[in-house]
Predict the 3D structure of the following.
Amino acid sequence: MAAQAEPENTGWTVRSAYTVGLLTLIYAFNTADRNLFGLLIPQIEKDMHLSDTVIGLLSGLAFALFYALAALPIASLADRWSRRNIISVGLAFWSLMTAMHGLVSNVVQLAITRFLLGAGEASSVAPSNSIIADLFTPAQRPLALGFLSMATSIGILVAFPVLGWVSEEYGWRMAFVVAGAPGILLALLFFLTVKEPERRAAPGEGKVSDPVPLRQALRYLAGSRAFIFGVGAGTLVSMNMAITHTWVPTFISRVHDLGQSDIGALMGFLRGPGGIIGGLVGGWLTSVMGVRDERWLYRVPAIAMLLIVPAQLLLLFADTDWLWQLGLALETLLVISTIGPLFALLLATAQPRMRSVAIALFLFFSNLVGQGGGPLISGMLSDALLPSLGDEAIRYAMLTAVVTAVLASVCCFAAGRNVSADRLRAASQEKRTH
């Protein structure tokens, strides 16, 4: 492919690196706050006498429903208003809701806090991706988004050992309070020190127009086959991650008989470095290979999704400690390696003034179907198998994650095969418009 001229004032500068660093830290709070529930499930179930099905509803659907409903209007606002302000306000709100988990006294109140946590966290991902798209060229984005994707593992690496110890010493309620408090200070820091970037388009992405009405943006994206298959791939990856983040701590507790503090430390030690390496390698490899052939933008995540299958089977069925722990580290590395390239693929299918809406539309499906459905389906299956398999039921219920990895790879290959055709369609529409 011929090299393209890069827009001025894009790329790695001190300001852009600082912005990416803070966005990564905010996303680390985002993922740690939502996934803390999974770490604390054994204590919450015991204290509030809940079944796996109810836990699946609270962990997945209760969070994902409001997240999905809030994501699109927030993203439409982010394509028109200051993304920095939206992220700052949202971070402060969801941090407060995280702390409120520690004050609930019944399952209804717990569900309400999960609803509101989801609504707050919807303010982060789409505006963050839109900011990165304006700071970097298409070739640079996978690496920048790879840094952002490391946030899941950074949050687990730092927070889970501490919060696992807090929950064991002081109870699960105090763990939520400790998790929520720092986010309010981070929101203030982000608001005071980050500048809203200028919206820009790279060569081949069209021009930066006036804000696109939400209905028009949705109509354009609905006609993009690459976007539709990309959303399918991302939704299935989200389902895979939701199942493992929700049920791996419970799996370790029931099948391998570890305590809360040990599980927190193990999750931090294995998932933290594994995810950080995966985010960097996935983003770097896609950026380097994509310069030579843009088809690697989808090949890298598609291949990684296939490799997730043996890693997760090793996690679930190896009885030797070091083997199932190796499976946990490898599946984390591989799952996280797909996130940056997937977001870069989705951004490549959208015009500049609809990037936030494109990411939010993806998040609508990935959270409602993936985050909402994955833990619930696995929880229901676990309850159904419990009479015959006992504590082993959770092992077989989590095979749903393996199925999603295979289907995600198929969708990712299909998305990549349609990128060029969708670009020709976009160029043709722009000519007719002007």
Q: What stands out?
A: The chain has a mean pLDDT of 83. The domain at 14-198+214-433 is CATH 1.20.1250.20 (Growth Hormone; Chain: A;).
